[in-house]
Each structure stands twice: as structure tokens, then as C-alpha cells.
């Protein structure tokens, strides 16, 4: 991992927009006066309808778009006073159609920034192989291929690997999984999420897809036209308590299903392990691979309850041979779990609302 350019107090924002404004030469005000912080190691998603200023905001952070007024700070430095080329070496950038160099191999594409930074061949080769493995492509097979020899999904993986090559502290992503079919997209999202947790990269990601936002974002910023920040909160809160009006419309139907996709089972959601004789009637133990565990997503829990015909299903703690039944999940338990995460969201949103006013 690279070390940050300068020590910062814990929790200091890595990217800070201060009254950032962009007016294009034809008079279009894409972003009016945005205040927004992205915290270290955070994956912040910008979401909103077409033309609301998401890409403009993102591109203000690496100076592909120059501000008309206000400031953007990256790692505490005003980027207007930073050399744009040096800035972009510290900030990875991934766009929808990836923009791989067609006449360079996958390995050479990934090595673009390391080459600019003057890394030696051995270090570059090792890093390239590591990154290909990280995004799930066999280096022996893919390093020497050209972009035209890849599927759309593979190209996007290479795009992500290239952006991560010099281990930038900050990554900007504009619809990075847009060109992939829904199933591949889901897989890429999952893998990217894992990689981001592992590397601790601070990420700002633009999407118009609310499901993607909910799946990936530590926090989600919902924009309306003109780069207005309508709501900034975590996924549960956004779904449980969307701000009235534009956000609620944008989040739309299917909120309950999305909540099922993000909640995770914890011990308080379960009937105690010993209660099966006088409490819920236990379903037969599921095959370990499909068994529920503490931390299982609610949608898996819902599927297991449906398969058991509504009978209590066992939930395991620990893995492998050491796994033990932590308790039993009943339909009421799952309802309680949904109430638990939405009640938690309500508390936080009340706090956030008073902090914002
Ligand atoms: N170079 C430009 N000159 C004039 N107007 C522009 C320019 N680039 C973008 N705009 C306008 O600024 C507004 C915001 O555009 P932006 O691309 O930031 O939106 P977006 O939310 O990323 O949209 P989408 O989801 O459709 O990509 C839009 O009205 C767009 O037409």
C-alpha cells in the first residue's frame, strides 16, 4: 500500500467539495454550489437521474472539469493549486467504456501509470500479475492479450485493474460496470466491493442505478438536477426513510426487496438454540453449503424460510467442523430483523436531520 501524501487527522475527508460550482460555457449550470465530503476508506455513491450533474461532480475531483467557483480539496490540498497530471496519477479513474489502449496488451495497459512513475520491470510485472488475479483474470492467459480479444466484462475488469495499478488512495468511477450484462454486473460489483474493502481505497462512484448504489455504497448521495444534494445517507436509511419528494420517487417501488438484499442476520433475530422443543418446530438441518449463518443476507433467509414452508430454520455460527447452531430463525424473527434495521435507520436519520439543519 502507498502511504498517504501527508498525515491527516483520523476521519478527515479525503475529498472535500466546498461550494463547488460548474457553469459550462453555454450557460448550463451543472452543479450549483455543492458541499460534500468523502471520508477515508469510504465508498461513496453518487446517484440520480440523467443530467443531474453526477459526472460533472466526479470530474471536478480530478480536474477533468475545472470549477467555476468554490474549491475541491483532495487529501487536504486545494486541487486548483496542484498540477493536474500529478493529481491524476494519485487518483484512479474508471469510466464506462473503459478506454483501454487498443494497441497495447492487457499487461501494458495495466502498467500505464507504473511506467509513468518509473517503476522497474520486475515490480511492474509483479504488480500487474497481482492485479489480474485480484480482478479474477489469470495473468498467464490475459497479460498478453489485446483489448479486442476480451469480453466486455473482462475489459471492465482490466479497466479496474489499471486504475488500481499504482495503488491510488482515491478512485473515481463513472458507471464502471455499465457495459456488462446484469449477471456479470452483479459479480463484478461483488468482487469490486471485496477488493475495495481489502485495499481500503477511498472511492467515489457514479451510477444511475439505485440497486447498484444500495449494494455498494457506504453512503449514498442522491442528486437532483443542478447537482443539488437531496439526501446523503447509508443504504438502509435511504430505503427505509427516503426524503419526501424527488428521492422517494427516485428510490421508487421495490424498496422492501432491496432492504432484504442488504440486511444481515444477527443473534438477536433468532430463537435461542435450545428452544426448539417447546418453541418453533425445527426444519431438518439444511446441507451445510446452503445453511443460514450469522451474517447471512435477509434474502437468503427469506428463501430458506420459504423452502421450509415457514418452519423455523437453523442458523449456524462459525465455519467448517466447528459450526454450531446459534439459534432458529422463524418468519416472525425475520420480520423483527427487518424492523430492527429500519428502526436503527430511523434513529440515525433523526440525528442526521438535526445535524443538517
Ligand atoms: N461540456 C458541456 N457543455 C455544456 N453542458 C454540459 C457539458 N457537459 C455536461 N453538460 C450539462 O450539464 C448537466 C450535467 O451533466 P452531467 O454529465 O454531469 O450529468 P450526469 O448526472 O452525469 O448525467 P448522466 O447520468 O446522463 O450521465 C447536463 O444538463 C448536461 O447537459
UniProtKB/TrEMBL annotation:
<feature type="domain" description="ABC transporter">
    <location>
        <begin position="15"/>
        <end position="250"/>
    </location>
</feature>
<dbReference type="InterPro" id="IPR003439">
    <property type="entry name" value="ABC_transporter-like_ATP-bd"/>
</dbReference>
<dbReference type="GO" id="GO:0005524">
    <property type="term" value="F:ATP binding"/>
</dbReference>
<dbReference type="GO" id="GO:0016887">
    <property type="term" value="F:ATP hydrolysis activity"/>
</dbReference>
<dbReference type="GO" id="GO:0015418">
    <property type="term" value="F:ABC-type quaternary ammonium compound transporting activity"/>
</dbReference>
<dbReference type="InterPro" id="IPR003593">
    <property type="entry name" value="AAA+_ATPase"/>
</dbReference>
<dbReference type="Pfam" id="PF00005">
    <property type="entry name" value="ABC_tran"/>
</dbReference>
<keyword id="KW-0547">Nucleotide-binding</keyword>
<dbReference type="InterPro" id="IPR017871">
    <property type="entry name" value="ABC_transporter-like_CS"/>
</dbReference>
<comment type="similarity">
    <text>Belongs to the ABC transporter superfamily.</text>
</comment>
<protein>
    <recommendedName>
        <fullName>ABC-type quaternary amine transporter</fullName>
        <ecNumber>7.6.2.9</ecNumber>
    </recommendedName>
</protein>
<keyword id="KW-0067">ATP-binding</keyword>
<keyword id="KW-0813">Transport</keyword>
<dbReference type="InterPro" id="IPR027417">
    <property type="entry name" value="P-loop_NTPase"/>
</dbReference>
Amino acid at each position: 500500500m502507498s502511504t498517504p501524501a501527508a498525515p491527516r487527522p483520523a476521519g478527515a475527508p479525503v475529498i472535500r467539495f466546498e461550494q463547488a460550482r460548474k457553469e459550462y460555457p453555454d450557460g448550463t449550470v451543472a452543479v450549483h454550489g455543492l458541499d460534500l465530503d468523502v471520508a477515508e476508506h469510504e465508498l461513496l455513491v453518487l446517484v440520480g437521474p440523467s443530467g443531474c450533474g453526477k459526472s460533472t461532480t466526479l470530474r471536478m475531483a480530478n480536474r477533468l472539469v475545472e470549477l467555476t467557483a468554490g474549491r475541491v480539496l483532495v487529501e487536504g490540498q486545494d486541487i486548483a493549486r496542484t498540477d493536474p497530471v500529478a493529481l491524476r496519477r494519485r487518483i484512479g479513474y474508471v469510466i464506462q467504456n473503459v478506454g483501454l489502449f487498443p494497441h497495447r496488451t492487457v499487461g501494458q495497459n495495466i502498467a500505464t501509470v507504473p511506467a509513468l512513475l518509473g517503476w522497474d520491470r520486475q515490480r511492474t510485472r509483479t504488480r500487474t500479475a497481482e492485479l489480474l488475479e485480484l480482478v479474477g483474470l489469470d495473468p498467464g492467459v490475459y497479460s498478453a492479450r489485446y483489448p479486442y480479444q476480451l469480453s466486455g466484462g473482462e475489459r471492465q475488469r482490466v479497466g479496474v485493474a489499471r486504475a488500481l495499478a499504482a495503488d491510488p488512495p482515491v478512485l473515481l468511477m463513472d458507471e464502471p460496470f455499465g457495459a456488462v450484462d446484469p449477471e456479470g454486473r452483479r459479480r463484478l460489483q461483488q468482487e469490486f466491493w471485496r477488493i475495495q474493502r481489502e485495499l481500503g481505497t477511498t472511492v467515489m462512484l457514479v451510477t444511475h442505478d439505485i440497486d447498484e448504489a444500495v449494494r455498494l455504497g457506504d453512503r449514498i448521495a442522491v442528486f437532483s438536477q443542478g447537482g443539488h444534494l437531496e439526501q446523503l445517507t447509508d443504504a438502509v436509511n435511504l430505503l427505509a426513510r427516503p426524503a419526501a419528494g424527488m428521492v422517494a420517487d427516485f428510490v421508487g417501488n421495490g424498496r422492501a426487496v432491496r432492504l432484504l438484499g442488504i440486511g444481515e442476520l444477527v443473534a438477536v433475530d433468532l430463537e435461542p438454540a435450545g428452544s426448539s422443543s417447546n418453541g418453533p418446530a425445527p426444519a431438518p438441518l439444511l446441507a451445510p453449503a446452503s445453511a443460514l449463518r450469522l451474517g447471512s443476507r435477509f434474502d437468503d433467509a427469506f428463501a430458506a424460510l420459504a423452502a421450509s414452508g415457514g418452519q423455523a430454520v437453523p442458523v449456524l455460527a462459525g465455519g467448517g467442523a466447528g459450526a454450531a447452531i446459534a439459534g432458529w430463525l422463524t418468519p416472525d424473527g425475520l420480520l423483527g430483523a427487518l424492523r430492527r434495521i429500519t428502526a436503527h435507520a430511523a434513529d440515525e436519520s433523526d440525528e442526521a436531520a438535526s445535524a443538517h439543519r
